[in-house]
Amino acid sequence: MAQIIDGKAISAQIKDEVKEEVAKLKEQGCEIALAVIQVGSDPASSVYVRNKKRACEYVGIESVSYEVSEDTTQEELLELVEKCNKDPKIRGILVQLPLPKHMDEDEILLAIDPKKDVDGFHPVSVGNMVIGEDGFLSCTPAGIIQLLKRSNISIEGKECVVVGRSNIVGKPMAMLLLRENGTVTICHSRTKDLKEVCKRADILVVAIGKPKFIDDSYVKDGAVIIDVGIHRNENNKLCGDVDFEKVEPKASAITPVPGGVGPMTIAMLMQNCLESNKLFGEKN
Ligand code: NDP
């Protein structure tokens, strides 16, 4: 039986640690606020935004909400980001993605002051991560490192295979595993013999966006499996990129969906808001 890596419990632990730190800062007269910007009313985005606001409330970080209409122009959104950049109370700026089609997402993300880039998507944050400088880490991959560490799974010297090379998951994941001294291989849609490469993995991280794509034939006995994917199946039940039922008996540890990687992303966002204060904060 594989160890089930409990993302719900680990994320709750991290949020409690953040809550404690935030309370200490408040005692010193320091308030932290996160600006949450949502353009339009995409239902999935609204759920994510609501969950982020709830997490802020729990840890004691003020969330300053900007809900602007679908037909907001690029210029108007840039002005709003700039206003948040200049507001000393706001320590983190989160622009909920995806943005409406008429907007240039890259330009908006570049406009966020890197000192407030709590999502860790700005090229400055990415650069700092790659060269090992302090800075914001992309939340989902940083959460996965915490899942492994807090489950006592060591990364050093392990064969780590990451399937997926997106800028928000696959690439930063590979970099963070490398920082932890893993031996890292990145796979993508053009990888030859994907199965053979995956079977080398001591730690297999799957972020491809295809329901139940990875079954037991991709997995070495005793491997640790991290499933980043989130999908709803035909019965409206959540599932991941990994076929849990088939893979679990072969793995030594595995994340479930839901309750694995998912809850970690918001916990790490809270951690990044706190970090913004440590990295760049001044008393306000
Ligand atoms: P993207 O669609 O941006 O990237 C998918 C990656 O998988 C690409 O690099 C693609 O390769 C690769 N890929 C696709 N098909 C195959 C295949 N058959 N074989 C090998 N590689 C393949 O997805 P994201 O990284 O944004 O997200 C991945 C999944 O994780 C999604 O299900 C998403 O919902 C979920 N997710 C979950 C989060 C959480 O908090 N738990 C956070 C973010 C995402 P190529 O580059 O060659 O096209």
Question: What does this entry show, briefly?
Answer:
By secondary structure, the protein is of the alpha/beta class. It is 42% helix and 16% strand.
Structure commentary:
With 284 residues, this protein is α/β, with parallel strands linked by helices. It has two domains: 29-117, Rossmann fold (3-Layer(aba) Sandwich); 139-262, NAD(P)-binding Rossmann-like Domain (Rossmann fold), CATH 3.40.50. 42% of the residues lie in helices and 16% in strands. It is built from ten helices and eleven strands. It has helices spanning 7-27, 43-59, 74-86, 105-111, 123-131, 139-150, 170-179, 194-199, 244-247, 262-280; strands at 3-4, 33-39, 62-68, 90-95, 159-163, 183-187, 203-206, 224-227, 231-232, 238-239, 253-254. Helix 2 packs across helix 10 (262-280). The structure holds NADPH dihydro-nicotinamide-adenine-dinucleotide phosphate. The site of NADPH dihydro-nicotinamide-adenine-dinucleotide phosphate (NDP) has 24 residues, from helix 10. The site of NADPH dihydro-nicotinamide-adenine-dinucleotide phosphate has 24 residues, from helix 10.
